[in-house]
Amino acid sequence: xxxxxxxxxxxxxxxxxxxxxxxxxxxxxxxxxxxxxxxxxxxxxxxxxxxxxxxxxxxxxxxxxxxxxxxxxxxxxxxxxxxxxxxxxxxxxxxxxxxxxxxxxxxxxxxxxxxxxxxxxxxxxxxxxxxxxxxxxxxxxxxxxxxxxxxxxxxxxxxxxxxxxxxxxxxxxxxxxxxxxxxxxxxxxxxxxxxxxxxxxxxxxxxxxxxxxxxxxxxxxxxxxxxxxxxxxx
Length: 234
Hints:
Mean pLDDT: 78
Distance between the termini: 12 Å
Structural class: alpha+beta
Largest sheet: 5 strands, mixed
Number of helices: 10
CATH architecture: 2-Layer Sandwich
Radius of gyration: 18 Å
Oligomer: single chain
Shape: globular
Number of strands: 5
C-alpha cells in the first residue's frame, strides 16, 4: 500500500510541475499527450520540425531511431517536466531563438533572424553567434541526460552540391563549437541536407532566409528514461 501511495504521489507532483510551466512559450506548443501520461509516441512530429519534407523516407530512418520511442505513464510525465525545464531555460537565455517542445524533445531553430546565423557563403561561427552558443552550451552542461542532434540546411540558391557541402560545414561548425565548450562528443549527432528539405517557400526572400537554418534537437537519453521509470516503480 505504501508503494502505491508513493507512486501516486510521484505522478501527481510531476503532473502539477508540468502544468506550472505552461506559460513558457515553448511549452505552449506541447500537446495534451506531452502534458499527460504519454509522450514521444512517434518520431514523426519531431522530425518534421527539424527537416520539413520527406519525414518518412528511408534516408531519415537513422534520425527516427535516435528520436523515436514510447515513454508512458508517470515516467513520461517526469521526462516531460525535465524537458520543459530545459526548454524554458533555453528560451530565457537565448530570446532570439525559436524554441519548440515537440513530442518528448525540444527543437531549436536558428536562422538569419535569430541568435545564431552564418554570413553569406560562410560556415564559421561568427562573434554574435558565439555569444548565443556559449549560453546554449551552459544549458547543455546543466541538463546532462540528453542527446543532441544538429542539422544544417540551406535555401535553393546555387548548385545542389555546393549547398550540401555548405550545410555540412555549418552543422559541423555548430557541433564542434559546442563540443569545444566541454560537452561530451557522444551526446552529439550531426546531419545535413543542403537544399533538399525546405520548410518554407524558396520562391520568396523571406522563405529563403528561413530555410538557411541550423536546427538543434534535444531528446532524453537512456539514463533519463531509465531513472524516470525507476522513480515510478519505487
